[in-house]
């Protein structure tokens, strides 16, 4: 019999119960016991869903009040000193509030301290808390939560498989604040605790433990490859069965490392890397289980059960009962339950599967290849085939004109007429800006009144003309304030935008929006990515009326504001029936039309935001160039339609620019603004070393805090910037948009910024 299981289930709850409970707890509006009860209820419900679907094992250890990587740090007693948890560590029982303080700097009890760093988990939009490591660190079993959850599952009659981040991936994700540490020197002590954990799980009656080692799909230094072998030889003595789980890509050059590990099972991602399955099987030892991840754990499309059955049957012949089936990775990355989407049209619903539906898909496949399919399974198989046939042929997906337009893209379409140096002259003449021009990144405060108006409009309580009039008055206010502040290049303030991707997606054809399709981003924060299901077109101009209205209110240049094609792609669920770059080109063409319309309407500066360019980088360095090539091409396709005298800006938030500086230069934006204030302009080194040729606005105002930066501080930052960028190419602006701030914070901060620019200008 083929065992069916999952690598993890979303923990937020179908109604985001976990978000609501944790936030209420942090606010002091819900007791610790009530919070714990919410956790127990959710776990129970999720195990029940897995069992009811027919999975052979339920997943325990995937629950976390904040983050599963943080949970492992707590399990290992890896709590930095500033959280003053020595007594809790010694007692082997770290308090939940300590965990929350590590995550957010504060909790209902305990002294606030600087939170741990947070960053994206591999190439997903999920953020984990970076384990803080230091030389000579010792680890000790410091939490009982995992064991309690195992007991909970066992008492309720479930058969648990425990899932934990593996020791190597945990170290791989960790960082020493001082930077200088060979993390592998800590491995032995980490393994001591893992051994203890595994032994204890065994005494509880756990048979299988899944250790997540997605580091195996990245480029690993030799020492790390060897460490895998060493680590798992030690863990081998544990009295449980171990399954090492890889996902988000292929094992590549770690193939023999992974297949030689002395463990009882291996999980591989057959969605991202279908071609690796046979070579893994060839190398597997005869007793090892292979869990094949065939249902996409990162996207929302319904699985093609018939095709998968065909693919799996030969594997079944080869592996017999050593074949297990699962989604490709934890279902953490998809929304919870499609059944709630009562507003989506029927056809679209029939093409989708969320976490709850993916359980059924895995189970159904297992039964199909075992020849023990029930009537229900046969029905599911038929329904899937029918839905997929419809999807393949649907006129809502395929618009021949779009395909023809993409096919007709020429190299010239992605090429501005003149090189930057010539464009700069034309732009200087057209725009007549002072030296060190001041501007902002786009959004102004999203006030409670703006949000209330949007809610009322969506609820049908106010009419469209009414809503638009309100937005116009907010735009007028933002323009008036900017004029009073003396900024040089103004923005309309983005009052009308709920979100920088959703706003565009809602106006483009080919996009759909769910009501409850929430996915955890970090802690209690969830995002609801749009679904790109079809060829993308732009029925009408999206931003032109707002920008032109704003331009009528001022003689200063009004900057048009768009989200770039790569960012829209990156922050959406994308089609699986065509390559990502094709979808990106379609979006780029739609945005190109918008750029052209803005220019025709008299907008002479257009900003195309691409904060997600860096995060789209593939996990393997070998694939970077290909990605960067098409990503850059898509940006340029969007931008290059304008005259030389129209100035194109782009904005990126904080990024590791070193890796992609060549690509950033290749964007050939006339001006790039980036987040630098917290790094004290050090990020500019990458640009300087590269001799970045175009204009730059390194942020001088950290918009992530409510603090008002003073003039001297910003003058100092500008002077640092001037050591790296000549004055003719330097802009003055905040780090990012101001939508999360209040006017009371923004006005004095921008007044100081303008003053700082004026002071520095006088020296030239
Ligand atoms: N134009 C956007 C804003 O100002 C940019 C946001 C971002 O970079 N994340 O809000
Ligand atoms: Zn930004």
TrEMBL record:
Residue stretches making up the Cobalamin-independent methionine synthase MetE N-terminal domain: 4-316
Binding-site residues for L-homocysteine, renumbered to this chain: 441-443, 494, 609
One GO biological process term: methylation
Protein name stated in the entry: 5-methyltetrahydropteroyltriglutamate--homocysteine methyltransferase
Binding site for Zn(2+) 1: 651, 653, 675, 736
Gene: metE
Enzyme Commission (EC) number: 2.1.1.14
Cross-referenced Pfam families: Meth_synt_1, Meth_synt_2
Classification via HAMAP family: Meth_synth
Domain Cobalamin-independent methionine synthase MetE C-terminal/archaeal: 436-758
Ligand binding (L-methionine): 441-443, 494, 609
Residues the record lists as binding 5-methyltetrahydropteroyltri-L-glutamate: 16-19, 120, 125, 525-526, 571, 615
Catalytic center residues: 704
GO MF term list: 5-methyltetrahydropteroyltriglutamate-homocysteine S-methyltransferase activity; zinc ion binding
Family (UniProt): Belongs to the vitamin-B12 independent methionine synthase family.
């Amino acid at each position: 019999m083929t065992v069916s299981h999952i690598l993890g289930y979303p923990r937020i709850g179908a109604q985001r119960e976990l978000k609501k409970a944790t936030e209420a707890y942090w606010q002091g509006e819900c007791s610790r016991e009530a919070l714990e009860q919410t956790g127990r209820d959710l776990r129970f419900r999720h195990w029940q869903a897995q069992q009811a679907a027919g999975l052979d094992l339920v997943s325990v250890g995937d629950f976390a009040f904040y983050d599963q990587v943080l949970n492992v740090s707590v399990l290992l007693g890896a709590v930095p000193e500033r959280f003053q948890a020595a007594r809790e560590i010694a007692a082997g029982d770290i308090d939940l509030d300590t965990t929350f303080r590590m995550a957010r700097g504060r909790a209902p009890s305990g002294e606030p301290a600087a939170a741990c760093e947070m960053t994206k988990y591999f190439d997903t939009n999920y953020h984990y808390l970076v384990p803080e490591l230091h030389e000579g660190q010792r680890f000790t079993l410091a939490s009982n939560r995992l064991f309690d959850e195992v007991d909970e599952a066992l008492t309720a009659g479930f058969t648990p498989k425990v899932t934990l981040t593996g020791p190597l991936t945990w170290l791989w994700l960790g960082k020493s604040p001082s930077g200088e540490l060979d993390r592998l020197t800590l491995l032995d002590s980490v393994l001591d605790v893992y051994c203890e954990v595994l032994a204890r799980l065994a005494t509880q009656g756990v048979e299988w433990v899944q250790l997540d080692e997605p580091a195996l799909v990245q480029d690993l230094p030799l020492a790390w490859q060897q460490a895998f072998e060493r680590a798992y030889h030690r863990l081998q003595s544990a009295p449980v069965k171990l399954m090492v789980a890889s996902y988000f890509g292929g094992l590549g050059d770690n193939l023999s490392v992974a297949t030689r590990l002395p463990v009882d099972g291996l999980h591989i991602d057959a969605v991202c890397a279908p071609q690796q399955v046979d070579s893994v099987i060839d190398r597997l030892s005869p007793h090892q289980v292979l869990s094949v991840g065939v249902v996409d754990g990162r996207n929302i499309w319904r699985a093609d059960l018939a095709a998968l059955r065909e693919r799996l049957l030969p594997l079944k012949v080869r592996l017999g009962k050593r074949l297990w089936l699962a989604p490709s990775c934890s279902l953490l990355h998809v929304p919870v339950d499609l059944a709630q989407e009562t507003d989506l049209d029927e056809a679209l619903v029939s093409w989708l599967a969320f976490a709850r539906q993916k359980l059924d898909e895995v189970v159904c496949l297992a039964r199909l290849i075992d020849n023990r399919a029930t009537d229900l399974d046969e029905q599911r198989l038929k329904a899937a085939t029918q839905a997929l046939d419809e999807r393949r042929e649907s006129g809502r997906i395929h618009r021949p004109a779009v395909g023809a337009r993409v096919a007709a893209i020429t190299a010239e379409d992605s090429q501005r007429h003149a090189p930057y140096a010539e464009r700069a002259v034309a732009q200087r003449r057209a725009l007549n800006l002072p030296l060190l021009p001041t501007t902002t990144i786009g959004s102004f405060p999203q006030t409670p009144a703006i949000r209330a108006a949007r809610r009322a409009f969506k609820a049908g309580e106010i009419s469209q003309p009414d809503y638009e009039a309100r937005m116009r008055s907010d735009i007028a206010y933002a323009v008036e304030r900017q004029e009073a502040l003396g900024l040089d290049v103004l923005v309309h303030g983005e009052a009308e935008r709920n979100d920088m991707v959703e706003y565009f997606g809602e106006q483009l054809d080919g996009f759909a929006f769910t009501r409850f399709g929430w996915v955890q981003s970090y802690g209690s924060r969830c995002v609801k990515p749009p679904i790109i299901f079809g060829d993308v077109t732009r029925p009408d101009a999206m931003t032109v009326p707002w920008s032109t209205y704003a331009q009528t209110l001022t003689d200063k240049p009004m900057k048009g504001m768009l989200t770039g094609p790569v960012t829209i792609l990156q922050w959406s669920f994308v089609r699986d029936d065509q390559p990502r770059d094709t979808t990106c080109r379609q979006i780029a063409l739609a945005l190109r039309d918008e750029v052209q319309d803005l220019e025709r309407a008299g907008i002479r500066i257009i900003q195309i935001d691409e904060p997600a360019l860096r995060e789209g980088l593939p996990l393997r360095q070998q694939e970077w160039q290909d990605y960067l090539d098409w990503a850059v091409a898509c940006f340029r396709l969007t931008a290059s339609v304008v005259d030389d005298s129209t100035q194109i800006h782009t904005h990126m938030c904080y990024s590791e620019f070193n890796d992609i500086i060549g690509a950033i230069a290749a964007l050939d934006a006339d001006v790039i603004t980036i987040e630098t204030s917290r790094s004290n302009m050090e990020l500019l080194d990458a640009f300087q070393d590269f001799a970045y040729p175009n204009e730059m606005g390194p942020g001088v105002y950290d918009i992530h805090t409510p603090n008002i930066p003073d003039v001297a501080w910003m003058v100092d930052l500008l002077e640092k910037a001037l050591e790296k960028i000549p004055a003719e190419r330097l802009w003055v602006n905040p780090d990012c948009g101001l939508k999360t701030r209040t006017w009371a914070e923004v006005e004095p901060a921008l007044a100081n910024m303008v003053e700082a620019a004026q002071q520095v200008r006088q020296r030239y």
